[in-house]
Amino acid sequence: MAEASVAALEAMEARITALMEAGRAHRADVSQVVSRVATARAQREKARGQFELLKLRLKVLTGVSTSQELVLIEAFAGVSPGTEVSFEQALVERGELKLARMKAGLAQTQVDAASRGLWPQVVLQGGYTLANPNERYFPASAEFNDSWDVSVVMSWVVWDFGVNLGERRVAQARARAAEHEVEHLQQMTEFAVEQTAIELENADREIVAAAESVTAARQTFEVIQQRFEEGRATATDVLTAELDVTRAAAEVVQLEAARQMALARLKRFGALSD
């Protein structure tokens, strides 16, 4: 959009310069156009920087490598037909929630391990032996004999009860903290997804209205430009009309960028169903 504005102004500068040489325009008109071209070029460079920053932010949100080339189209289509924002899917697919649930599961495992140290440990053992000679046979004989045994072993270190109890309480506190973190992330995810979905809907509506403004501004610019060619409008009128077109088009681009950022956030949350 900035490139088109610069090109249009440069073409206008050439026309007004030709008109001035033919005696049909003043030097002040040329100066105004030259100043506007310089401003448009500065805005173009600023827009390029903002565009590169937008691509970097999109890469971070979508998890794309910063070294990978990212191509953005000017008119982003938004959510494709049949794609919906799913809160339930976000609660399942969001990476931060998966990690928090994993931590909560590990914390509960530590609680179970610490709890086992509070009570006696009972182990059931069994064995079967086939040997020549079999030492369990008396008197010993040079022949194969089999034997089996079953035993129950109980162990309990009473003196470590207090230590084990303290370890379990610490593990329980960590498990509760992990569960609270999961609940907090779930609430934050629901809020963030709902907020971003509203931002996406607002951007869609605003883009439609802004696009109509661009169309109207371009039509006005064309009329004034034609009147200028006929000598019925001044260079200031043309510059003002061109500025209105640039502002309207810039608003559309900003809204498109905001919509893409909203879609990228929803994708990161895992809220977009295919």
In short:
This protein is mainly alpha-helical and 274 residues long. It contains 6 helices and 2 strands; from the N terminus they run ααααββαα.
How would you sum up this structure, described in words?
- There is one protein chain.
- This protein is mostly helical and 274 residues long.
- Helices cover 69% and strands 8% of the residues.
- Strands 1-2 form a two-stranded antiparallel ribbon.
- It starts with a helix and ends in a 5-residue tail after the last helix.
- About 4% of the residues have low confidence.
Fold topology:
Layout: H1 2-21, H2 27-62, H3 87-93, H4 95-116, E1 121-131, E2 145-155, H5 161-229, H6 235-269
Antiparallel strand pairs: 1-2
Helix pairs in contact: 1-2, 1-6, 2-6, 4-5, 5-6
Key features of this structure:
274 residues; mainly alpha
SSE succession? HHHHEEHH
Q: Strand fraction band?
A: 5-15%
Alpha-beta classification: mainly alpha
Termini Cα gap: 31 Å
Which sheet architecture does the biggest sheet show? 2 strands, antiparallel
Provide a count of the helices. 6
Q: What is the overall shape? A: rod-shaped
Summarize the amount of helix as a percent range.
Answer: 55-70%
